Amino acid sequence: FSSIGKKTYIISSENNSLTLNDLSPGKLYFWRVRPYNSLSTCQTFTVFQSFKTGLSTATHNQIPEVNSWKLGPNPLYQNEQVGLEINSSNAFEGQITWFDTQGRQLAPTQALKASSGKNQWQLSIPQNGTGIYFFVLHTEKGRISRKLMVME
Fold first, then answer.
1. How does strand 117-123 pair with strand 49-52?
2. For position 54, what pLDDT does the model report?
């Protein structure tokens, strides 16, 4: 792994978390831990763990053509469809993607075409049981997202 590049972070026991804001989208990262304290500095590293960052790291949460939008009911029950309503100033095309709380894509991306004015769809939630899911609509000009809770 030395040819890939390496960053070292030291974290104290009072603050045992680390937030990184400089990760590139769509990239595989590896991490490991080496515990130490004032009495023991010869511990070995843990085995490598890895994760891949998502492709969408945009911090803006809007699509210029979308004047308003609703996703509901929220919360909803398993096997219930969720309604999506978009009021749009202009026609646009986008893709709908569902993610779980771990950032895993739950189903194939769905295409969406909206016309100018009021648009309504009934969407099926990916069949992954109860929990919290994230709805994301991407277009060439932006994205909108919403958290959705599915109950028994």
1. unpaired
2. 75
